[in-house]
Amino acid sequence: MSTDTYLNLVNSGVTKKIAKQLGLPRPAQLRRFRPGQPLVAGPVLVLGTGPDADAIAHLLSGTSLGDTGLESGWDLDVRRTATAGERHAAIVLVLTEITHPDQLSEPMLAAASALKGLAPGARIVTISRPATADIGPALSAARQGVDGVLRSLAKELRGGATANGVVVADGVPVTAPSALGALRFFLSTRSAFVDGQLLHVDSDAGSLPSDWDRPLAGRVAVVTGAARGIGAAIATTLARDGATVVAVDVPAAGEQLVAVANSVRGTALQLDVTAEDAGQKILDHTLTRHGRLDIVVHNAGITRDKLLANMTTEKWDPVLAVNVAAPLRINEALLESGDFTDAPRIVALASTSGIAGNRGQTNYAASKGGVIGMVRATAPLLTAFGGTANAVAPGFIETEMTARIPAVTRQVARRLNSLQQGGLPVDVAETVAFLASPQAGGVVGQTLRVCGQNLVGQ
Ligand code: NAD
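Above: inputs. Below: predicted complex with nicotinamide-adenine-dinucleotide.
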């Protein structure tokens, strides 16, 4: 049961009927990931023509691809044309071959004919190429058109269905590990609260895991701010995916921290991330106790909201110090150490406030905008050894932080996205886990929003 009473009411018994009759918003109960769950529960319609569409259809259905030896083992029930009356659980639109906006009509109208019969919680995923300045106006227009149609379609879907896109760089095959990794993430229930987003795959770096339910097996991950909320969910999710977890939080949160560390069979490190030597302390603990360090999740974060007109040093400085200066300093220490070089992963928590802005949060938005800039420029420092740095930008997530928002404001804030509800800490954690995985090696320097397609901002 969600803590969102309204969501529970419109999904049960007599109140469900009343909400329907009154035409009230009816947010769906989103399905979340469980290991062993089928990737997609029903037929998948793959639309698009050409070798890329054929390759994706082959891989999804689990048949090997010609002489490439590529096999996904996904074994989905793939269809290439929509049949009247069939309920599709997913539609994959392969749009990499389009060269002019005129060519969008055929695949989009083919998808349209399948939309009315979509299964609850269905997934729509586009696969396309980026609209860069050097490819000519018509091609760039066609590719940017995919962005527009995807974001609009996500706003039309109901019943917990989502639409997201994978944008694969020119020269990188659509079967590259991260193109398939991103496609799988968007098809699965791991992306329940990710909607209307386009994720870029810039290279064929990364590798597919031997076990999709434990992609982090053998990896050691540090999660800061892990004593509660989103950080605790990240620790649990990374451990579920096979990682050994070091849970970091301030000494004041010691008891909760130990409980989280014990629950994931990891270790606890009491540490204020703003300490000058925090990076070294993290390295010392991790190398001594676990012998290696592969993943760092900068999740520790604070807010001190105030209109800028009333802002004080006491409210500004700590927010910048915890949210962005500490991750910067820790990353620097890790990079200098030479002990963070086996396809390492940095994932930092940004916020939609750092993208769209939020009244009363200039300090917080400066820090979270800072995180977005930080990962963009940190990623190139890691590519030489197969590493990545990316950010996750949550929207409204049901945590202790947001439980303190006054009731009416909270009710409104929850509905202002395409899924008409707040996300759960686990939704953020699943996205962090994806970016930390081997199959996300070609995703670099990006910020992926987990906001149900928040209606404010970009
Ligand atoms: P929370 O306040 O529930 O938890 C934050 C944790 O960080 C706490 O355990 C706290 O003790 C720890 N922490 C704070 N300062 C620290 C320091 N100096 N050193 C070590 N640990 C420290 O917050 P949350 O809602 O779980 O948010 C987690 C992250 O997600 C934050 O970065 C936050 O800005 C971001 N975020 C949250 C939301 C949301 O809706 N809750 C939305 C967008 C972004």
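The pocket of nicotinamide-adenine-dinucleotide is lined by residues 224-225, 227-231, 249-250, 253, 272-274, 299-302, 322, 349, 351, 394, 396-397, 399-402 (CB under 6 Å).
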